[in-house]
């Protein structure tokens, strides 16, 4: 509900800015070659751009080097977790197979010894499940932390980016979820991505794995 309210508020604010902008350019006859009340002519004039823009988030994440490095770090974490789980699973399977072999061949010295071994394998299985849950939770927390770090970095950089741009609103657009239609001249994704990469530098995961992140 909060997200929906935010979208509605943003849309209302954008309309308000649009109206103010139109009034500003139409309040004086002949200003910028647009006569008072001729909104359609003004909106069709490619030289006139409203102080709003949008960024395609999907494209930004694919091309922003900092996002690439964060994604690479997450992939390494996931691979490490998977390797640990695979090793634990192999140990569990090997112990279970050995237990089954001994049980079939009457290799245990007593029933008590067989039960002890069975309990040990059950504990191994429990440890495996607990390990899987712990690693899953740790990965989710790490993903959340990195996503917040990325979002905070982009917000800070956009403030710097907008110092000489003068945009009143910069929308985020993911898979056309927020913006159903907009003229391409309001798409500043490429410009923002270039600015962010200029501030951050090359992706360390691709070009220089040993260098430190600059954000």
Automatic annotation (TrEMBL):
It comes from Petrimonas mucosa. Keywords: Coiled coil, Membrane, Signal, Transmembrane, Transmembrane helix. The chain crosses the membrane at residues 6-26. One of its GO terms (cellular component) is cytosol. Residues 82-145 form a coiled coil. It comes from the Bacteria. This is OmpH family outer membrane protein. GO terms for molecular function: unfolded protein binding. Belongs to the Skp family. The keyword Amino-acid biosynthesis does not apply. GO terms for biological process: protein stabilization. Signal peptide: none annotated.
């Amino acid at each position: 509900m909060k997200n929906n309210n935010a979208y509605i508020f943003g849309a209302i604010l954008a309309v308000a800015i649009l109206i103010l902008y139109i009034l500003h350019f139409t309040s004086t006859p002949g200003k910028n070659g647009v006569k008072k009340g001729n909104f359609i002519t003004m909106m069709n004039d490619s030289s006139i751009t409203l102080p709003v823009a949008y960024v395609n988030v999907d494209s930004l994440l694919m091309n922003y080097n900092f996002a690439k490095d964060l994604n690479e770090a997450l992939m390494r974490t996931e691979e490490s977790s998977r390797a640990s789980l695979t090793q634990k699973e192999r140990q569990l399977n090997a112990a279970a197979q050995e237990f089954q072999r001994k049980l079939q061949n009457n290799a245990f010295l007593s029933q008590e010894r067989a039960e002890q071994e069975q309990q040990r394998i059950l504990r191994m299985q429990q440890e495996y499940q607990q390990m899987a849950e712990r690693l899953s939770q740790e990965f989710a927390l790490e993903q959340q932390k990195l996503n917040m770090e990325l979002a905070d970095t982009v917000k800070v950089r956009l403030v710097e980016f907008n110092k000489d741009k003068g945009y009143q609103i910069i929308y985020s657009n993911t898979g056309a979820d927020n913006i159903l239609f907009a003229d391409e001249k309001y798409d500043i994704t490429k410009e923002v991505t270039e600015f962010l990469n200029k501030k951050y530098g090359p992706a360390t995961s691709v070009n220089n794995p040993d260098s430190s992140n600059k954000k």
